[in-house]
Design goal:
With 161 residues, the chain is of the alpha+beta class. Helices cover 27% and strands 36% of the residues. Strands 1-2-3-4-5-7-6 form a seven-stranded mixed beta sheet, sandwiched between helices. The chain starts with 10 loop residues before the first strand and ends in a 7-residue tail after the last strand.
Length: 161
C-alpha cells in the first residue's frame, strides 16, 4: 500500500508586518522597479486589502487592492517567480475579486505592462478586458517608459437590462 501525501490547499490571509521581509524579497526578484517596504506599510496603514498567499507552508505571493466607491483596483499582485506555473496567481486573483465583491465593487481595474505577457494572459483568462492605455506609465531600465494596458472586469450588471 502506498500513501499519496498531498500538499495542503493554498491559503490567503491578511498581510502582517512580519510578512514584509518575504513580500519585499519576492517583489525585488520579480520587478526591476520594486515597491519599497514603506509603500507596503503605507498600504496596510491606510486600510487597503493587503493579502498574502501561503502555499506549501511558505509565503508564495501577495496582493494589494483598494476598493472604493464601487470600484476595485488591483495595485500589486505578485507570485514568487520560482513558483510560477502552479495556478497560484489565478488562485490569488480570484480571492482578490471575491474580496472586492464582498465590499460592493461593481468593477475591478488594473494596469499591466504589455511586455508582461504571463500577467496579461492571466487577466484575460480571468475575464478582464482591455479598456484603455496609459501612455509611458511604467519606467524601463533603458530610461524610457512603457505604456500600461488598463484592464477591467465587470462584476455586476452584466446581462441585467
Amino acid at each position: 500500500m502506498s500513501a499519496v501525501v498531498q500538499a495542503p490547499a493554498p491559503e490567503v490571509r491578511r498581510m502582517r508586518e512580519q510578512d514584509l521581509t518575504d513580500v519585499v524579497a519576492i517583489e525585488r526578484q520579480a520587478y526591476d522597479f520594486p515597491w519599497t517596504p514603506t509603500v507596503f506599510r503605507d498600504c496596510m496603514r491606510v486600510g487597503y486589502g493587503c493579502w498574502v498567499l501561503i502555499a506549501e507552508e511558505r509565503l508564495a505571493g501577495y496582493l494589494v487592492m483598494s476598493v472604493v466607491a464601487g470600484e476595485g483596483h488591483v495595485l500589486n499582485i505578485c507570485i514568487d517567480p520560482a513558483r510560477h506555473g502552479k495556478g497560484l496567481g489565478r488562485f490569488l486573483l480570484a480571492a482578490g475579486i471575491e474580496h472586492a465583491q464582498r465590499l460592493g465593487a461593481e468593477t475591478v481595474f488594473l494596469e499591466v505592462r504589455p511586455s508582461n505577457t504571463r500577467a496579461v494572459n492571466l487577466y484575460e483568462r480571468a475575464g478582464f478586458c482591455e479598456v484603455g492605455v496609459r501612455p509611458e506609465y511604467y519606467p524601463v531600465a533603458t530610461g524610457r517608459r512603457e505604456d500600461a494596458l488598463i484592464f477591467a472586469l465587470q462584476l455586476t450588471g452584466v446581462g441585467n437590462d
